[in-house]
Design goal:
The chain is mainly alpha-helical. 95% of the residues lie in helices and 0% in strands. The N and C termini lie far apart (180 Å).
Length: 164
Amino acid sequence: MNLVTPDIGLIFWTTLTFLILLFLLKKFAWKPILNMVKERDESIENALNAAEEAKKEMAVLNAKNEELLQEAREERDKMLKEARDTKDKMISEAKSQAREEGDKLIRNARQSIETEKKAALADIKNQVATLSVEVAERILKEKLSEGDGQEKLVEKYIQDINLN
């Protein structure tokens, strides 16, 4: 039962040991422990501040990245629109040039056909005239070879002349 009810001497020596230990801890250990705790607290706070700064910088970088991406998208859209416009312009120019070339070829072909037609008609007229002269010559030779036929022919021509 001695342990349950402590003696005054035990209380005295325990208190004295505690006070000496407290003095020694205060003199030698308390300041370094508090300094280490304070340094640890400061390093944790600095780390938190650095993390907050990094978070803000990341937010700024993300905003800049989004802005750059938006600009890149706009530039891409602009380039695509210009390319489409250029393509459409080239196609329309090619179509109009082809249409002009086709119209020119058609005009040239029509002129050539008209020229060929006139030449063919002139040739046919010449051939008809030649044939007519030959036929007339043969008929006249045949009719003029007869004496009676010559007189009838001359009288007929005289009558035609008087009528015209």
